[in-house]
Design brief:
231 residues; alpha/beta; Spore Coat Polysaccharide Biosynthesis Protein SpsA, Chain A
Length: 231
Amino acid sequence: MQWTLVVPLKPLARAKSRLSDTAADGLRPGLALAFAQDTVAAALACPAVKDVAVVTDDALAGRELGALGAHVVPDEPAGGLNAALAHAATVVRASRPDGPVAALNADLPALRPLELAKVLDAAAEFPRAFLADAATIGTTLLTAAPGNELLPAFGEDSRARHRASGAVELHLDAVDSVRQDVDTGEDLRAALALGVGRRTAAAVARLRRPEGARESARPAPTAPHPTSNPS
């Protein structure tokens, strides 16, 4: 089974505000874009993925992610994350009605294609399924098999909300890169320890320059070599 992934991305100027302790205001948009680029690149390299649709109204993000091979879907509802995901899933299903659809977070810079394939293969056994994030509170991936609505319920306590909606929680080992989203400086350090893609590694390197980072905020002692992750 090959999946279409829907990846939501808010305007970069408003992205990753919780990283303010790690990245200055002027650097957070570039960091958010790098996360999304590495996420999309890894997803497109996954053998279980047919294509990726990014739902965003950010022109720069649309151009950069489109250049990687993603389809860009405008956020026409402009009604928040779940409305954007439901809209994008409808758009995707209009051209591929019998295909499975999954929503994937845009902030998985350590994502590894084979780990993503493992999760999607497990999800194929259920009408709807989800994977909890590393903090075990949120959700990084929500899937809907053919004939099933996505019914996204992302946001606060989304793990509990998706479970309550009837989606099956996937309990898998060795898929840390699919769980490790990045909202805080601590999350970023955890992603760096797993090994991030080359765009995130470059963006983090810019954080360490004196003019681009607060003296007391360093995400990790050293950045992984860009080749540590195929994305």
